[in-house]
Amino acid sequence: MLRYVLTTVLALSAAPALANDSVAELGTGGLILSRNDAVAMQSEDLFISPEKVTVDYVFHNNTDKDVDAIVAFPMPDISGDPEEMPAIPENQSDNFLGFEVTIDGAPAKPQLEQKVLALGIDISADLKAQNVPFNPFGDAAKAALTKLPQAVADDWVNRGIIIEDAEADSGQKPGYSPFWQLRSTYWWRSAFPANKDVHVSHRYKPSVGGTSSVSFFNEGQFQGSYAAYKTRYCMDGAFENAVRKAAKDNADGYPKFYESRIAYILTTGGNWAGGTIGKFKLTVDKGNPKALVSFCGDNVKKVGPTSFEMTAHDFYPEHDIDILLLEPSDSNDGDAN
Length: 337
Description:
Number of strands: 23
Strand order of the largest sheet: 8-7-14-4-3-19-22-21
Structural class: mainly beta
Number of helices: 5
CATH architecture of the largest domain: Sandwich
Number of domains: 2
């Protein structure tokens, strides 16, 4: 889940390009702590919904010496590709997930480190020299590109930093769009006093991908991406039967749902003492009682009209979390599990 790893870097990668009526979700995760054998993760309480992700940790310093560490929260990489639009909650802000963190109940003020890459090469200095903001989806970056000297624009096109927009009318100067990748990491220094607990909480808005229909069911049967979805989201018989019923109840034979997808990076980390989480709890809330939800987990229990819970002790995360939500496109659809 949110890997509190004492150092830096948790690479969060965007999902692959989807169909034209789709928006790609960005995989997000948790905190990273630099390598340390003194600090153990006593517990982690993870809550995921389409509206928010919250994580509450309790860390314990098992030694008689205070420990100072760098803690990082890597934001997902975002790429300015006009052919692949990711779901970005706040696309005009550097803090595009609305990330917030508290330590023992007090708000922390993390620093933001950003770099810009094109073809794997750091081109941050190039953008700074031309006063171009780093966020490839921000209006400010697009506006700054219109002011580039022509020689610089030509050079950046050749280097894969920007691309020309659709051809302008004859005689007009071409417009340009960002094609670079933005990598962002929030980080701060944290103290772990000897033989004491430290409570750390953070929250952010998830990147929720989506498709305007059910991509794995068509003409009365499961097909297309069904095999991949079944593996990724652990769709069981009850879930599949609900999809079949929704299709049967619809006159045209198609289930009246649209997809929402949330990806959470759970497998990173292991830098705390012992390498496991003492007490781990995952809660997934589907939000809409009429929605269908499917995700992989052991001994998952329904604990409320929209919420599902999994708990474990001495937990070692072997798999990331991928959540599939089928939201009814017809408000008259019946309740779902």
